[in-house]
Amino acid sequence: SLASTSASEDRVPADRIVVIPSGVSQPARRLRWPVLRFDPPLQEGSKLILHVGNLTKVKNQRLAILALADLCAIRPAQRFTLLFAGSGPDAGELRELAASLGVGERIRFLGFRNDMPNLMRRANVLLITSLSETMPLVALEAMYGGVPIVTTPWKGALELLQDGDLGCIATGYDPSSVSRALCKALEDRE
Predict the structure, then answer these.
(1) pLDDT digits over 132-190, tens only?
(2) What is the dihedral of CA 86, 33, 44, 142, to 10 degrees?
(3) Cα 9 to Cα 2, 12, 58, 130, distances in angstroms
(4) Alpha carbons 104 and 72: distance in angstroms, whole number
(5) 111 phi, psi to nearest 5 deg
(6) Which of 53, 116, 115 is nearest to 90 (CA)?
(7) What distance in Å separates the CA atoms of residue 123 and residue 32, rounded to the nearest whole number?
(8) Model pTM greater than 0.85?
(9) How far is CA 137 from CA 116, 141, 148, in A?
(10) Which of 30, 52, 96, 190 has the fewest C-beta atoms lying within 10 Å of its C-beta?
């Protein structure tokens, strides 16, 4: 656990560590959800890959875009759309990268959102490409919502996703590892 890692690697005395359970509540069940509108509209039948977080280097959205380009190359007949929910200083650079790779029309920059349960409901997979995390609340929200998770192998990912039972963990931080994990998650009907 993170507590034992802190004690062993960071040399924090065990009696000084308190584990506090997450306060993320399960999303409310709704009979009618507001219809999500995207500009420009999404291609019909497009698989939605949701990435949530500030658009900054540590969240590594650059890898998400590179993985999308790889995914489109290995599955050219499939339609994929990458949704970035969040804002930040790297937005312009990420748009330029997407355009240079020819996947700009497959990405929607949604900015800050306060309708995460509705976005999760529409997503086919949640993608986490962070260089490091502690315990991403968005992963817990995805678990509650039944959304498959694909993540990079940051320290603690294996533990959070119970050795891969609760999501796909890419073997590395390269686009092909992430795109293979995305393929596995999107093709697994269970």
Answers:
(1) 998 899 998 898 888 999 999 999 898 888 877 888 999 999 999 999 999 999 987 66
(2) 50
(3) 10, 8, 22, 21
(4) 12
(5) 70, -170
(6) 53
(7) 17
(8) no
(9) 12, 6, 14
(10) 190
